[in-house]
Design a protein that fits this description.
By secondary structure, this protein is an alpha/beta fold. Helices cover 32% and strands 25% of the residues. The protein is built from six helices and seven strands, in the order αββαβαβαβααββ. β6 and β7 form a beta hairpin. It comes from Minutocellus polymorphus.
């Protein structure tokens, strides 16, 4: 997971929106500024004030370049992003392991919000995701289907870990999966997505 996370997040450029930032686990994996482009501004969103405080503490210890503006915003990624930020505002939008805690309908709403706030691919916009997914191994997939609901209720932090994120992306109008990688028998996947 760490290698997949680092590889994917190294592709973030420009003004980045990260939803479901949690404790800020991803922040040290971004490449900031420099001649190769990198991240020039970072907007970190979570629905929890407690998580945002954890992320704020982590960011304060990183020693980021003063030219990189970092903003912490409390918002619900399933409904607030477009109203708060407007359409076509971010060069890169990132989400790692948050769709599963939104449930299937919430995840679909979130993907629509992400699509609307990211710039088009013609303007260099992209969405980077790493998500729990239904396994490509038939036996593991069946096990996930049988246990996902109970696991999410009993200590799984609400995560529905058998979502078919690939299908959700295919059915989100205006999004196109550029690259998809499967890890750990398909238990999680990374996606590079653009807006047509």
């Amino acid at each position: 997971i760490d290698a997949a996370r680092s590889s994917l997040l190294s592709k973030a450029r420009g003004h980045v929106l990260e939803v479901g930032v949690g404790t800020g686990l991803n922040v040290n994996r971004y490449s900031f500024g420099g001649e190769a482009g990198g991240v020039t501004a970072l907007t970190l969103v979570d629905i929890s004030d407690g998580m945002l405080n954890e992320a704020r503490t982590k960011v304060s210890k990183l020693g980021l370049p003063s030219s990189v503006k970092v903003e912490f915003v409390r918002a619900d990624a399933t409904k607030d992003l477009v109203d708060m930020f407007g359409s076509d505002q971010f060069d890169t939008v990132v989400d790692t392991f948050s769709l599963c805690v939104m449930g299937n309908e919430g995840a679909k709403k979130c993907l629509t919000q992400l699509r609307d706030v990211v710039k088009s691919s013609d303007a260099g916009g992209k969405i980077l995701l790493i998500e729990n997914t239904r396994s490509s191994n038939p036996l593991l997939g069946l096990y996930q289907d049988a246990t996902a609901e109970k696991a999410s209720e009993m200590g799984g932090k609400g995560c529905v870990y058998n979502q078919d994120v690939t299908e959700m992306l295919k059915h989100t109008k205006g999004l196109r999966v550029v690259k998809e990688e499967s890890f750990a028998a398909g238990l999680f996947r990374s996606f590079e997505v653009d807006k047509r």
